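Re: that chain you flagged

S.,

Sorry for the slow reply, it's been a week of failed gels. I finally had a moment to sit down with the sequence you sent. For the record, here it is as I used it:
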Amino acid sequence: MNMSISITRKDRDGAVYSPKQAVSREEALRLYAGAASRYAFAEQHTGTIDVGKLADLAILSVDEDEIKNIVALKIVGGRVVYERAS
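Prediction finished late last night. Pasting the structure tokens below so you have them in one place:
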């Protein structure tokens, strides 16, 4: 939900807050992944998708008109642990 608010600047009730502070989907993802890695003092091992770094991924299905957190694929420790049926 927080990523959605960062992008749309709308809360669950549809109220808009500081629309000029909205960020793109890519920026929101980079901010969330990078911040989590920095807070854990793990920037050398996590936070970006690079060769040699660890990554647990959730691939989201996104409707262009609406930001939805619908997990399509989840990879943990290099193994697919969830894949939504088509």
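What I noticed first: The chain has two domains: 1-51, 56-86.

Talk soon,
D.
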